[in-house]
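User: My instructor asked us to take a sequence, write out its structure as tokens, and then describe one feature of it. I'm not sure where to start. Here is the sequence I was given:
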Amino acid sequence: MKRSALVAAVLAALTVFSAVASGAPARSQLTTVTVDTLPISNALPMTIGIQKGFFANHGIEIKTQTLQSGNDIVLALANHNGDIGYLGYVPMMIARTTGIPLTLVAASEVEGTNATDNWQDILVKGSSSIRSAADLAGKTIAANALKGVGEVVIRAALQKAGVDPSSIKLVAIPFPSMRTALNNGQVDAIWTPEPFLSQGVNIDGDRIVMAPGPVLGNYFPNGGYAALSDWMKSNPTTARSFRLAMNESLQYAQTHPDEIRAFPGGNVTHLPIWSSTIDRVQLLQLAKYAKQYGVIGSLPNFTQLFPSDVRTGFATGLLEATVTKIGKVKVVQSGKLAKRLDPGKYLVIVKDQSKTHGFGLVGPGVKIRTSIKKTGTFRYRVTLTSGLYNYTNLRKPRQAGAFSVS
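Assistant: Let's start with the prediction itself. The structure tokens for your sequence are:
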């Protein structure tokens, strides 16, 4: 054997050995999954998950195809052009109710709590006379697609703000083209996510006039990863492996924002809020809005669209806890004070606004304590079992409350 051939053979052997030794399958052992995705910052957890080896560790090699809207992705999946698609929950509902049997594989992100921390807002030019939601009445607003997430949340948020949702005109413009359309006066406003949101504000001098998602509810659901039910049935192991790798990627992205910002499209003012949880109560409300505005003709079958192996084993809901500047504490679920919850896994998001008080939650298997001297938003993943859970102001225990799990 020639020396060059011998060296090549040794290197190949070492590559395979290295993959086995590190616990990751060799490339030849990986299952290729084609993911149809969108050109927005929301998809970056998959990018970092690929880089960190989360997918390879679960035996998956990701191939991506970039499209411009969730509706485009529905059509691509329906034509078997891709295995899994990243898209909003509304296009998933449209698919389900029109005979395209999509099923959620993994969750992705939720919206924020207000216009200052949200990543997907309505922008107007800096010189625009539009100053509030009321001023949007009668205006032309761009969304990346008609009959999608944008149309539903924009109309629902306007109605909640007291504006006739039928008074606006919506036009479909791809996200990358929206800034040009706004600057040229083609539209009065654009509904856009990151990175285009930061580009509009920081480069063009645009203003945020409304954050539709947070108007409808804190951490309102936006989108995730779905596949045709037949693909799921034919590839159950691959689907589960993708979900596990995606959940690892979401968690890593949420806790390593500096690494996300190093990617193209990640250097933005407000990163999405990534979470593997799905809030069924808010998703049902989103479906009702979609039906109200004629985007879907009937409510989707939630059991088929959001299967139990996605809901259970990862989370059954979201709890929001707050500590005000004067020390008042409360825990709410879907905007209502938490009183009785189902057992299961939850994401607890604590917004502590006080530098002199803290938040505590104690119950079966759970003990959460934030710092009394620090403010910020803190996230905890907990498993709630049957029993009573007490929450309190750590500095003033009498300011407290409780909820039961049964």
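For the description part of your assignment, you could build on this observation: Confidence is low (pLDDT under 50) at residues 1-22. Try explaining in your own words what that tells you about the chain.
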